[in-house]
Amino acid sequence: PDLNAYIRGLPKAELHLHIEGTLEPELIFELAARNHMAIPYSSVEALRAAYAFTDLQSFLDLYYAGASVLITEQDFYDMTMAYLRRARADGVLHAEIMFDPQTHTGRGVAIETVFAGIARALREVRAATGISSYLLMSFLRHLSEQEAFDTLAAALPLREQYNDVWIGIGLDSAELGNPPDKFARIFARCKELEFRLVAHAGEEGPAAYVSDALDVLHVERIDHGVRSEDDPALMQRLIRDQVPLTVCPLSNLKLCVVDALEQHNLARLLRQGAMVTINSDDPAYFGGYVGQNYLATAQALGLSKQELGTLARNSLESCFLPADQKQVLL
Ligand code: ADE
Ligand code: ZN
């Protein structure tokens, strides 16, 4: 309880969070009812019991199915508000939130609806509480380069309207077999457009995907990156350049990236001097929001309060806020 309060009190940012991954089973059932949709599970408990994953793909199948209850602007708003309430309770002062428009446009939901509902919640919470947030529009790597370009083209007319929130681009979904170079041209275009760039790499995929995310996609942060340790030269580079790694311990446990939290390399990465942060990824599916990720990791790896403080401070240092706003939080 004491460590819990300490963690909650640390000023922190959450930098690796998929908003669709915050849809709790209760809200899935509520939205399905509201939208007159059937769910192939008899109860909230039966749905939650299905969250027994063996790898990334086994999770993605349920995650995309769960997101199919999101239809209206209000649905996206309600989901986002529920996350921001949880984040606030965990002492999050700033959140950089990924969303997957292709998951919704592929079902006939307009991209305008997705932007409008999420942004309305972010703006309301910013005005009411001072908690700031940014959006990272993520491309699904199991889809084609052309589909990513089509998504960017659909979103760009909205850029001006959402320039207070939409600041960056991400890359997620099935990593193996969908290497960074598949998205070299779309990321080059997004860089020209002066978006901030991140990509998932080294979650299930090899360390070479991390190197390529840096060298080919020119990203500023690596989402996950835990497999970077397989390449000592890459590790030296990540430490030298202080490339932020947005690590998600409970996600890695649930997706069998590690067999036990005690075997997670987060503490080793941190103690080597890497710019490590702790995040929740898809908290509704992985059993804990960001505070729980700090707590479970601290207990499994014996992190000191000072190390927890470093991790929280790293999250603020690694965020995309302008330097003056960052300074206020640090
Ligand atoms: N989409 C949502 N969560 C993800 C993860 N952990 N890896 C890849 N794609 C994702
Ligand atoms: Zn992720």
From TrEMBL:
The protein's enzyme class: hydrolase
GO cellular component: a single term: cytosol
Any one GO BP annotation for this protein: adenine catabolic process
Domain Adenosine deaminase per the UniProt entry, residue ranges: 11-330
UniProt cofactor note: Binds 1 zinc ion per subunit.
Binding site for substrate: D282
Chain residues that bind Zn(2+): H16, H18, H200, D281
Stated family: Belongs to the metallo-dependent hydrolases superfamily. Adenosine and AMP deaminases family. Adenine deaminase type 2 subfamily.
Protein name: Adenine deaminase
